[in-house]
Amino acid sequence: MKIAVMQFPGTNCEFETLVAVKTVGMDGELFRWNRSAGELSGFDGFVIPGGFSYQDRLRAGVIASKEPVMNALKEEAIKGKPIIGICNGFQILVESGLLPGSVNGSGKVDMALAQNVMVSQGKIVRRGYYCDWVNLRHDAPSKRCSASFIIERGALLKVPIAHGEGNLVTTTPGLIEKLNEESQVVFRYCDKNGRIINEFPFNVNGSTESIAAICNEQGNVLGMMPHPERAFFAWQLPAFDPRKQRPDEPGPGRRVFQSMKRYIEVNA
What we know:
Blueprint: E1 2-7, H1 14-23, E2 27-32, E3 45-48, H2 68-78, E4 83-86, H3 88-96, E5 112-114, E6 117-120, E7 123-127, E8 130-138, E9 156-163, E10 167-169, H4 175-181, E11 185-190, E12 211-215, E13 221-224, H5 254-267
Parallel strand pairs: 1-2, 1-3, 3-4, 4-13
Antiparallel strand pairs: 5-10, 6-7, 8-9, 8-11, 11-12, 12-13
């Protein structure tokens, strides 16, 4: 089970992501953007980790999305292979048209991850980069998506975010409704009890309907703004989390990578 962890200039989470991939029992390898794109066909799955590809010039993820290697990833996605984009990886997937995506891989760009706009009681209280631990609610059915394949619907995960452009928006009529109807909204920001409260600090970036992660129609491609690799081990958790005192335990983010592994096992 061979996984390519993609690396673009400015990626900064590739090594933590590689550790996560290997710890759950998959064979991971860093795959730099300037390698022969044809080599990607030899992998079973792909992770595009977080960072600031090309310094987020123009807008986050857009330059990386134009690299030739992304055309090869689109071909692998059409074959049904799983792809996870985390933070900057999510931005790259959106800019390339892989998300929200369609079964025929048309590549149309229908969404954007815009600058964070934090709104509380009808007022903008903050903009731009924000880093914190957030609560996520899994809103898709179990097995709907490659990166939440083993996670039950309604499950809560606490993971960190660290981004300046995670505000998911669209001007395409009816797109959000379609994502909801097709169970393509995988995670939403919520409070500690799982309630969706569409304002800061619960909705940490102003994202439409508190959306934190979506998948494509086929379910094999997922993008998420929070960082599961930074909550992979219990010792990574914040001091107030009692699980930190049990460092040998897995962290909540591990389930994302375990899901990918199980997805490949089932669909091989």
